[in-house]
Amino acid sequence: MTEPTLASQFLGIATIMTCLFIVLLLIAYSEQKAKRQKEEQEKLDKAIIEVYQQGRNQFNNIARENIRNCDRKFTFDTQKPVGLREELLALPYPKEQKQ
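^ that's the sequence the OP posted. Answer follows.
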């Protein structure tokens, strides 16, 4: 067999180096894209959590206002419930277990 010429050897090495460079560029691009997507997802998650917290705080504030402003004249807070027996709230005695 004959050995390839020096020019074809250099051309082969140049082709390999070019392909390797292109592959490395594609890998770097995909890593940057994945990193960018991860950062965008984290920002979106933070925004969702923040909106959820604000909504929960608003609900808690409304509940506190309702409790403060409630009218206790028409509830059992000012009147004792009528009709309940005093002993154990009229619950039956527990069944005895057979041993």
